[in-house]
Structure formats: structure tokens, C-alpha cells
TrEMBL record, chain A:
This is TBC1 domain family member 19. It comes from the Eukaryota. It comes from Prolemur simus (Greater bamboo lemur). Residues 186-407 form the Rab-GAP TBC domain. SUPFAM superfamilies: Ypt/Rab-GAP domain of gyp1p.
TrEMBL record, chain B:
It comes from the Eukaryota. This is Nicolin 1, tubulin polyglutamylase complex subunit. One of its GO terms (cellular component) is nucleoplasm. InterPro entries: Nicolin-1. The gene is NICN1.
């Protein structure tokens, strides 16, 4: 009886820890993260002083009126953004991760059984394929999947019709847990928007619409330096993308409001990062005049707008689109650009990717390493963006279905390894990093679910 | 249950190794930490807390005070308690741990000394130990309340006062007032932590540069 009690309390403690986030190995992470954060702040400050643009500025009334009129077509604006540069890009972040070291870890010169041949040198626990098979059991060969069993050759009576019927039932019951279980096999296109809203607990109440309108007012009243960074990012990434350029205006409407949303500050309770701080001019050091900048504490990096772009296919009403994006960010996306030891954090995902490749495709891994093309250098940008902008949108949405269903980002690392496995034959023939990048440059023709299924369940190990 | 910290003296760690320390390669995988309680009488152990630093398994032996004639013996009260599920990886390596009386294999009634045996079989870590070790005994029980007699034995019901004309029933009014009072108490007690959503200070958001601290 006592044994059960202590087992249960241990399990509860573990669950609480998972809910609270990661167990941060204090020294190491704080040092690495602290110096990285300082770099970002320095970069932003220097942009501010060089261009003589204030971090924040109250708009004059005329400008406010103009912006309000143009709210639905901010994309037509062509401000001069040539002097702005993104604060950081994913490859800068990768360099920080590569240099993470544990001072208590034997990093000797001699090769031992645990030498990390990849780029990540931190000994976090990652799953191997048998454990992943257990975890992602619904992706198995004997279970129907959308993305595989709804292709034109398969008669819909075999799987698709029944699956759609169950989905409608789940929506009618408004059962969030059932929806999460259901979506592991993929979501029918017609039901996806409602299913995601159900899983993320988003219902458009009048208060939510009012809250969004309040944020919009904040955007109109104050102009932030971060806005220009957002503009620049959207122009560089989403506007140039064949699938997403039509949503440019939506992206501004969501991201500008996102920067002003102080409720996002709550996620720093379980995020190892901390929001940048500043003081009202003339009141340096006085705590009553300390504020966060930007108000939501999140400084966008190059490619940030790609987190929002795929959602525009599902939601057309700005306040609902906004809520869905905000919830996805504070549940999942923030882990992709902050350092922690959480199993869904970017460090663990990188290590999982490298370990899978090294264990199950050792020849390919060795070959790429020899030619100076460490696989993580190519796959990092896919994982940081959750494959947004690299896959075709229908495939991306099927992938994000599984992220929601399994409440974990590990599937991104598994897909990255599966892509390498798929193109292994071509990759074995390349002789340089540039050539390897070229082989893996275009992922838009890939079908995500067959790749995952083959890699996890049908590869002879 | 309240707990009281017992002042303890933690002796330095002793590494156990086979063979000569100087000539053998590799680091010791077993460390022993002795914990004595110099100024305290034998007490009942309630809880042990510490911060782990890369120790994989922990065993604890205890020496208890017995009656006059039998010498005190060492007894194992915790055997191979797992702190790190995978000794080669980070999980559990720097966690805060609490061990309670009911997890121990033997009675912890009259503790004289403790001996912690730390094991770390993986050769990957440069060192391992436990930090911030604290030992607790049971705190004093809260004094039992004695209720005044009239509260625990209410008197017989009084005759209800005849209702005056035109006035509402007093017992109903009193119960409604009670409910209202309970509501106001609830609202006063719960501090709403919902942010108002303002990010500026009095309408002003004119900032300096970002601060580095």
C-alpha cells in the first residue's frame, strides 16, 4: 500500500513537472541562454541607435486615422525597410545550440562509446524507434490514416467515410479529449478548423472579440520598432511564398496585435526565457516604470511569420485566427526557439534527429559528416519552422494535426530523419554541403504520412 | 504535518575504490557520506531532502539507538533508490528530492547517525554528489482545540417569536444576509491575477533602450 502511494506520488510529481515544463539544468542553460538573450537585446538596441528610431512611439492622431482606414490592406504599404535587419536567423540560433556544454560531462578527446558525432553535445534522453513506435502507435501500418488511406485509389468506404462520420460525432459532442485522440489519424479538411479550435479550447466569445479589438486599438495608438521587424519578415518570407502571399494582410493583423498582447507573458512561467525589460524614458531603474518590450515579451526572428501563415487557410475571421495562433504559440511554437531540456524543446528535437539518423542510417550519417555536411545544418531550419514553408500546405496541415494529437513536437524530428532516409540514395552520391542542400532543397512534393509510416514501422532495422 | 529541521553535520565524502587510488584509472563510482547529529538526542526521522547532482542510485543506512545492552547496529533503510532513470543522460540529474519516513524499509524511531551511499555507474560524469542535505523530524502537533460547552452542546430550541405583520420572515432574511456576506468574503479573499492588459504606464510607452540585467 505504501509502495503504491509513493509510486503514485512519484507519477504525479512527474506529471506536474511535465506540465510545468522542463527540468532545467540550471547552470548550463542559464549561462547559454543568458548570453544569447544579451546578444539579441544588443542587436535590437544598436538598430535603435543607428537608425535613430525609438523603440516605441505614440502615433499622432492623423497617422492613427490613416492606419485605421488602411487596417485591412496594410500589405499595400511599401515602407522603406532596407535599413532594418532581422534580429537573428535560425542559423545563428543553431550556433548557440552547438556550443552548449555541460561542465560535468566528460568531453575528452578520446572517442568513447558516448562521443556525440553530431553537432549537439548535450546528453539528453531521447526516444529510439521502439519507444517512438509505442508513442505513435496510431500511425502504424494497421491503422487508417488521412494522408494515406484517403488517396484516390483507395475506395472511401474502407476508411474515409467512417472517419469523417466519427469526426462529426466528436464535434457534435464537443469532446476535447476525444478530438485530440481522433486527430492522431488526421483530420478531414472540412472539419479541421473546428477540431483544432476544440482541442485548443478556443471558442469565440464576445469577450475574445472585444479583447482583439482592444489589441487593435493598441496597435493604432503606438508604433513599435518591432513592427518594422514584423513587416520586414512578412515581406521576406510569406509574401514570397506561392501559397501564402495572399494572406499578407492577415499576417500583419495577427502579428502586430500579438506583439501588444500582455497575456502572452504568462507563458514565461514555463519557458526558460525571460521577456526583455525596459524603463520609461527618464525613469531608469525605477521599478514602477519598468515595462516589458515588446509588450508580449517575444522578439520575432527571421521566419516567425511562417508560424501564422498556414493557419490562414483554416480561419478567416481575424479574432479567431488570432486566438488560435496565440494558443499554438504558447503551447508549442515557443519551444522551437528557446533553450530547455524539455522533450519537445528544440535541443531535444535536434538530438533526437541526429540520434535517429546515426542509429538507423549510419552509412549516410558517416558519409555526410565526412564531406562536411552535418545533417543537422540542413534539417535545423525545417524543425525551427515546424516545416512551414517547406512542405505543401495540405501535407503541413496533416503534420500539424499530429502535433496537436500527440501534444508533442517530436514528430518534427522523426519527419526530418524520414526525409533524409527517403533521399538517402541521392545523398550518398553528393560530395559537398552545397550539393546536399540542393538534394534537400525542395520538399514540396513529399507526402508526409507515408514517409513517417515507412520510417517508423516498415524499415528493417 | 509540520516538520522541524534537525541540525546535522555532514562529513566529507569518501570515495570507495578497489585498488590503489593513485594508480587506477577512471573515477570512483561509489561515494559515502556520513551524517551525524552531534547535539541532538536520538529522534524520529520524518523527512530527508536534498538536491541531486548527477547521482544515479542512493542507498541509506541508519544506526539507531537501542536499549542499554545491545550495541547499535547499522541497518539499511533505503536500498538502491533510483534518482536517474538513465545514468548516462541528464534526466533527474539535478532534481530536488524528498524522502519520507514511510518510504524507508525500517522504523526510523531513534536515529543516531545516517550513512548515504551514492552510486554513479556511468563513466561520463566528472563528479557526482548530493547537495543541500536537510533532515527533518516531526514538528509539534497543533494543540487540540477545546470548544466552549455552549458551542458543542447547543441548548434546546427556543419558542419561535410570532411574526410581526408586514415584516419578512427573520430566519429567511438572516440566511440570505449570510449568503451575501459569504460572497463578499470570497471576492475579497480571491485576488484576481488576470492582467488588465495594459502595457504602458499611465498612457506613456516612451522607452529607453532595453536593459541587460
Amino acid at each position: 500500500m505504501l509502495q503504491e502511494e509513493s509510486d503514485i506520488s512519484l507519477i504525479i510529481a512527474q506529471i506536474v513537472q511535465k506540465l510545468k515544463g522542463s527540468n532545467l539544468y540550471a547552470q548550463l542553460e542559464r549561462q547559454a541562454w543568458g548570453s544569447w538573450e544579451k546578444r539579441i537585446l544588443k542587436s535590437l538596441n544598436s538598430m535603435c541607435t543607428e537608425l535613430s528610431i525609438p523603440l516605441a512611439r505614440k502615433r499622432p492622431v492623423g497617422e492613427q486615422k490613416e492606419l485605421l482606414n488602411k487596417w485591412n490592406e496594410m500589405g499595400t504599404d511599401e515602407p522603406d525597410l532596407s535599413l532594418f535587419r532581422p534580429v537573428y536567423a535560425p542559423k545563428d540560433f543553431l550556433e548557440v545550440l552547438i556550443n552548449l556544454r555541460n561542465p560535468n560531462y566528460e568531453n575528452g578527446d578520446s572517442l568513447s562509446f558516448r562521443t556525440h558525432l553530431g553537432l549537439i553535445q548535450v546528453p539528453l534522453k531521447v526516444k529510439d524507434i521502439p519507444e517512438l513506435k509505442e508513442c505513435f502507435v496510431e500511425l502504424g501500418l494497421n491503422t487508417g490514416q488521412l494522408g494515406i488511406d484517403d488517396s484516390t485509389q483507395v475506395p472511401p468506404e474502407l476508411f474515409e467515410n467512417e472517419h469523417v462520420r466519427i469526426g462529426q460525432k466528436v464535434l457534435a459532442e464537443q469532446d476535447s479529449a476525444a478530438a485530440q485522440q481522433y486527430i492522431r489519424q488526421g483530420s478531414p479538411t472540412a472539419l479541421r478548423a473546428e477540431l483544432w479550435a476544440l482541442i485548443l479550447n478556443i471558442s469565440s466569445q464576445p469577450e475574445d472579440i472585444l479583447y482583439y479589438e482592444q489589441l487593435k486599438t493598441n496597435v493604432i495608438q503606438h508604433d513599435l520598432l518591432v513592427d518594422s521587424l514584423i513587416y520586414k519578415d512578412v515581406k521576406l518570407t510569406a509574401s514570397n511564398d506561392d501559397y501564402y502571399f495572399v494572406f499578407e494582410d492577415y499576417l500583419y493583423q495577427v502579428l502586430l496585435c500579438f506583439s501588444r498582447d500582455t497575456s502572452v507573458l504568462n507563458h514565461f512561467a514555463y519557458n526558460s526565457a525571460s521577456p526583455p525589460k525596459s524603463y520609461i524614458r527618464g525613469k531608469l531603474g525605477l521599478e514602477e516604470y519598468a515595462v516589458f518590450y515588446p509588450p508580449n515579451g517575444v522578439i520575432p526572428f527571421h521566419g516567425f511569420s511562417m508560424y501564422v501563415a498556414p493557419l490562414c487557410f483554416l480561419y478567416h475571421e481575424p479574432s479567431k485566427l488570432y486566438q488560435i495562433f496565440r494558443e499554438m504559440y504558447v503551447r508549442f511554437f515557443f519551444r522551437l526557439h528557446s533553450i530547455s531540456s524539455h522533450p519537445s524543446g528544440i535541443v531535444s528535437l535536434c538530438l533526437l534527429f541526429e540520434t535517429l539518423l546515426q542509429t538507423y542510417l549510419p552509412q549516410l550519417f558517416y558519409h555526410l559528416r565526412e564531406i562536411g555536411a552535418q545533417p543537422l545544418r540542413i534539417s535545423f531550419k525545417w524543425m525551427v519552422r515546424a516545416f512551414s514553408g517547406y512542405l505543401a500546405t495540405d501535407q503541413l496541415l496533416l503534420l500539424w494535426d499530429r502535433i496537436l494529437g500527440y501534444n508533442s513536437l517530436e514528430i518534427l524530428a522523426v519527419l526530418a530523419a524520414a526525409v533524409f532516409a527517403f533521399r538517402a540514395v541521392n545523398l550518398m552520391e553528393v560530395t559537398s554541403l552545397a550539393a546536399a542542400e540542393a538534394v534537400l532543397a525542395d520538399l514540396s512534393t513529399l507526402k508526409v504520412m507515408p514517409l513517417l509510416q515507412i520510417f517508423l514501422f516498415a524499415t528493417v532495422t | 504535518m509540520s516538520r522541524v529541521s534537525v541540525p546535522c553535520h555532514v562529513k566529507g565524502t569518501v570515495a570507495l575504490q578497489v585498488g590503489d587510488v593513485r594508480t587506477s584509472h577512471g573515477r570512483p563510482g561509489v561515494l559515502v557520506i556520513d551524517v551525524t547529529f552531534p547535539s541532538v538526542a536520538p529522534f524520529e526521522l520524518q523527512e530527508i531532502t536534498f538536491k541531486n547532482y548527477y547521482t544515479a542510485f542512493l542507498s541509506i543506512r541508519v544506526r539507531q539507538h537501542t536499549s542499554m545492552h545491545t550495541p547499535a547496529k547499522w541497518v539499511t533503510c533505503l536500498r538502491d533508490y533510483c534518482l536517474m532513470p538513465d545514468p548516462h543522460s541528464e534526466e533527474g540529474a539535478q532534481e530536488y528530492v524528498s524522502l519520507f519516513k514511510h518510504q524507508m524499509l525500517c522504523d526510523m524511531a531513534r536515529v543516531l547517525e545516517l550513512r548515504l551511499i551514492l552510486r554513479q555507474p556511468s563513466p561520463l560524469w566528472l563528479s557526482f554528489t548530493v547537495e543541500e542535505l536537510q533532515v527533518y523530524q516531526q514538528g509539534p502537533k497543533s494543540p487540540s482545540m477545546t470548544f466552549p460547552k455552549w458551542l458543542s452542546h447547543p441548548g434546546p430550541c427556543e419558542q419561535p417569536v410570532p411574526l410581526l405583520e408586514g415584516l419578512p420572515d427573520p430566519s429567511r432574511v438572516s440566511s440570505e444576509v449570510q449568503q451575501m456576506w459569504a460572497l463578499t468574503e470570497m471576492i475579497r479573499a480571491s485576488h484576481t491575477s488576470a492582467r488588465i492588459g495594459r502595457f504602458d504606464v499611465d498612457g506613456c510607452y516612451d522607452l529607453n533602450l532595453l536593459s541587460y540585467t
